[in-house]
Amino acid sequence: MLRTRSGPVNLGRVAIVGILNATPDSFSDGGLHMDPARAAAAAVAMVGEGAVMLDLGAESTRPGATPVAADEELRRLLPVLRAVRSAVRVPLSVDTTKAAVARAALDEGADVVNDISAGRLDPHLLPLCARTRTPVVLMHMQGTPATMQRDPRYTDVVAEVAKFLTERARAALDAGVSPDAIVVDPGFGFGKTVEHNCFLLRRLDEIVALGYPVLVGMSRKGFVGKLLGDRPTHDRVHGTAAAVALAVKAGTRLVRVHDVAAMRDVVAVAEAVG
Ligand code: HH2
Fold this sequence. Notes:
- By secondary structure, this protein is an alpha/beta fold.
- Helix content is 42%, strand content 12%.
- The chain has helices at 36-49, 70-87, 99-107, 125-131, 157-175, 194-202, 204-208, 222-227, 237-250, 260-273; strands at 15-21, 53-57, 92-95, 112-115, 136-139, 182-185, 215-216, 254-257.
- The longest helix has 19 residues, at 157-175.
- 6-hydroxymethylpterin-diphosphate binds at residues 19, 21, 23, 26-28, 57, 60-62, 95, 114, 116, 137, 139, 185, 187-188, 215, 217, 256.
């Protein structure tokens, strides 16, 4: 169970987390949800399709993306967050690396912080989560979005990601975050080749064995497209489905996805069989 201000997320079942990006440049839904009314409508639709949490981001982290300043991130995020908050009751996570953005989002009704830097980019972020009893997603990334896909290298990607997540969970605990408010994420596509992503998915049980609920974000990502012979973003749904089914089999507790209705069915079947 992940306790949030908007109610618990039951992790006894695999939780579907719908993606809503208030960005002009996200790799898959860029530009679609910057308008608050459209974002709210998309949020209502995703909840109707089975999302039990929504993840709102206002800074693209696709490979090569340029970082945005906190005031620009807030300018994009807050109107969308307010509209979504008044449209749906499910917990909302905010996808940010900045404590100032997280703080403003929490004030406007966000419930969870999703930090792709796992608290490394802003030293105030984990203490903020601790102080406000906010659950936090800690994600692995090698490098930064601007540079991460240039030449990612590991000796043993799974062991290195596991070690990193253990260290960042320790940093969160040291900052005062409660152990049951920590979620870990191996960071598919963040400083990883296709092969690295495949190793991580094949041995995801080793990340699950760390003892924290695992969230995976593989939806329509580049490695899925490459495995399908350079398929464009909108045509990666079935490839994503295969990856999600394997992640569910390995024991992942949350899946962050664009195609909520399709992945709800994939999760239902994978869970029932598993
Ligand atoms: N992936 C993206 C963004 N945030 N957060 C977590 N915890 N895990 C992920 O795998 C993850 C994430 C990238 O995907 P998306 O939001 O669809 O695109 P963009 O970064 O271009 O906005």
